[in-house]
Fold this protein.
Amino acid sequence: MNYLYSRILEIVGMRNAVKPATLNKMAHETLVLACHEGLRGTGQAYGNLFSQVDYLCRRHHVRLADRVQIQAMRRHTNGSEELGDEDFLYDMRALSRFVSAVTGEAVPGELLRALPANDRPYDRVEGVDVRYVRCIVREWDDNYIYVSAERGLAAQLLAVDVSGDFAYLRKMMREGMQLNLLDCKMSTPDGAVCRTLPEGVACVVMLGLVVVEPDYLIDISSIAACFKDYGHHPLTYTIERMSPKANGSPILLGNLAGAVLDGVVNEGDGFDLARTIRSNFAEKALEYSACAGFDAAGFKRDIIAQAGNIRQAVDVMFGEYDRRRVVLEPSFICEKLGLQGRVDMMTTDFSLLVEQKSGKNWNIESGRNGSHGSRQLEPHYVQLLLYYGVLRYNFNLGFDRTDIRLLYSKYPPANGLLAVAFYRNLFREAVKLRNQIVATDYMIAGSGFDKVLPLLTPDTVNTAGLDSEFYQRWLLPRITAVTEPLKGLTPLEREYFCSMVTFVYREQLAAKVGSQEGVSRSMADLWNMPLTEKIETGNIYVGLTIKAKECSGDGGVPDIITLSVPGQGEGFLPNFRRGDTVYLYQYNKDGEPDVRNSLLYKGGIVSIRTTEITVALVNGQKNPEIFKVHEDGDNAVYAIEHAGGDSAGGGAVRGLHEFITAPADRRDLLLCRREPRRDASVKLARAYNEAYDDILERVRQSLDYFLLVGPPGTGKTSMAIRFIVEEELARAGTSVLLMAYTNRAVDELCAMLDDAQIDYIRIGNEYSADPRCKPHLLGEAVKACPRLDAMKERIRSVRVITGTTSMLVSRPFIFDIKHFTLAVVDEASQILEPNIVGLLAAHRTDGSGRQACCIDKFVLTGDHKQLPAVVQQDAGESEISSRQLRDICLDDCRDSLFERLLRVERNAGRTAFVGVLRRHGRMHPEVADFPCREFYHDEHLQPVPLPHQSEIALDYADIGLHDALDSLLRTHRMIFLPSRLCRRPDVSDKVNTDEAAIVAEVLRRVRLMMGSAFTPEKSVGVIVPYRNQIAVIRKEVERFGMPELESVSIDTVERYQGSQRDVIIYSFTVQNAWQLEFLAASCFTDAGRVIDRKLNVALTRARRQMIMTGNVGVLSSNPVFSRLIAYVSGNGGMLAIHEK
């Protein structure tokens, strides 16, 4: 019997034995698995389960009546409510029909006999809420779009009237597109209309508003920015994404004016402008230092004037409204409108909504009304209307509920505080533009960027046909700065740019809406993922209460919130880390947390403990009711979830444009149109270490790039990178940019610099960095020299700057201040090419007026045989077919630049620009033997050897357990302990209780055998493929009552990369053949050998002993795992299952 049918049969048999929430969860997981099976190899990236199920039903020609039943089953399993026995069995019948359609296998007779013989009656299907209908497009014609509602109306279609203002929708339709129909009117078609409609149409829908692909959130400020003097067009959004990140006095003034508004509202008469300026300068030190032509005196005059205007405006507003209800800069997610954003100021009773602008308003200065008969500028009007729309649809507000104001703080409130009316037509036009932007993004992801490239011209976006002197002199040059370089691309450059941008858009699509539920994480999980699954995956904290509030600064506004964490359920394991950006929000303890109907407060995690969690808010809140210390009887509790964003995708698109506009010499280098250069006459300044000096000299001789391959334990950071930095700094006038993919790797780079006593500045967030790095953070440097000239000099004079690549992509202003003779990128094998190429090609105008690269030479370090960059899109989508691109070794966009350049050097037969570190100081030779044979055959790795690598025997004490396991642990360094199958339908497939018991017992014995030499941080670690297994192992370990074992690190392979322990225990966990696809997902072929990168990482973390446990029958169907088991067994390191 197919395993999916077996699961359904087991679920049916357990329906009276487990809780409803568990039953729903089991059914939901089975549906997810069925979708995963059905979508395998299709290249489809449908985020939510609704669209996945719909696509597979259409693909396999499932009749419409069955689709309704299957979708009803999906909805039921999203919740925790109990269904009646009859309804539950109807759901299992629908699930079985779905599995049959997807797999092509008939439902087994044994299962058929346990299910109802007929479908659920139609009259038992839920009705339709005409205010909000989520639906999927089936087909369309010149007058109607025919859709199926997510819920209700049984197996009938809705005909959506798209005449008039909604006619634009027909151009963007595609089968399977999701729509939100808002404020609808429905009617039964009369006879004449009915004859023109397809069979099965239940009613005609007259739209109030329609939102295309609502799970694809667009930032409100980005939409507003597309309303230009020359019109608005969806490709303006695309052009804006490619434009250089702006930094100038107006932007800095706007940011500071926002801080002043916060301070005036929070502190009242105690507001201190000087303190606010100092705090803002520390926060934006890099931006101030990099601001060209910054007029400090004029800037100070402007902010003093604006502060006075803001004080007056606040007094005016809160003469009418309750100041105690004010909330500053809350964020919102509106799935109904497909929008997200952050409001400057509002009241918690929704009576007041304020958006602040600090720049000039020509309508105010000229005393004339603008195009909409009022003084506000159109982009600002659009922004405020969309914020108001979010409030209305999230909280069901009436049109007259909220007073909406625009505060132009450059002017006194008599002129600058504008009361704004809700303008329905402009609001609908803004939503229309949002729909067009989303449709364009989907089209790029689906059909390729080359389809829009010819349309990226000034004429396209100048929809108003503007031709004034102002347009020609100021507006047109900003457009052409982006579009003109695109016209002059060579065929190779065009292929490269379009392929990479398409790849980035596909990744962005997956990050926003997901690729497949249960396979990847996305922004839309915030509302699409069932609460039970969020808790199981550790992606939410619920039921939190305020324990304490503190002020990080001297302004007296609480911004550090500590919350008590109640029990989150058995086996809960938080998927949060220090420094993560999160949403903190309030909800009623009797309800379920939902980001869509809450005020969201953005912050970063300061610390996490079992019983409490501390968050540093981006904006502190004076209002005592917002974060009230918990008292008995309070109904308000809090939740924490991950906060998403679009910065990575935007940074990659901007970086690719930076690359194609870079000097030809750098483009030619990275596109392999010229060879890298070297100067063989150059020698090292001194000898460093005989094992490294040959490579160091070749690094020194290279003039363009060098690729350093660092297999596990070869001293890549502590030795090689340190020596590379010291050698570069040995010459006068040099400076180094040190980057890595993760904050953890940057922490290690900083520790290396500290050990070498090299001064540096780290660009980054206090809470994302190791506390030991705090004195070197840019903000801390400001405190030591709080003057702009001193700050500039500090940045210019320091010879090493460090930070994550993502941080430097988001803050490229460092290149406006500083030129680097060398950049070193650690973890380069984990960085996708679009995320690094813009940094390596960063360029500015030099003193002679020519474009010059900001980095002279770069060294990429990594190991392409360990874990690669994370990619969510289907492998078939990222593969390259272009002959031009494959000729430069760009075979797949999911490969890192490091890996591509390694192929380039290998194909060219060059060795001068590649170095492999061959002496490893981590693994004992017996531990290293299999991974060196299997994964590093051509690298010829050798032990240093360090003392532990020369040990003959393991130094374990006799603990009196003279059994087979005791013998193995004492005598073998590579051990495999077979596990038994222990599958249960009410337990996740990502859990293996038998292996958890094995791991716990091994931990106990290793602890006792090590005696006083045992330290949790160094002695032993446990690696698992699934986070779910961590909690089960911890529960088993707790039974032994050994507190020191509770501190042992148990984590996933991904989290263990870069770590090491004396003893590593690896639980393979899997019990199903289909799980091997996940376990071996990172495999690739190198020189004819299959390299399993995930297994390689797991096996190379151990210094003295590697212990594995897994199901031999399941694992042996994978060739690499089979060879591993045979190797260990052949060396006597395998325990017979009856001996356990």
User: Anything to note?
Assistant: The chain has a mean pLDDT of 92.
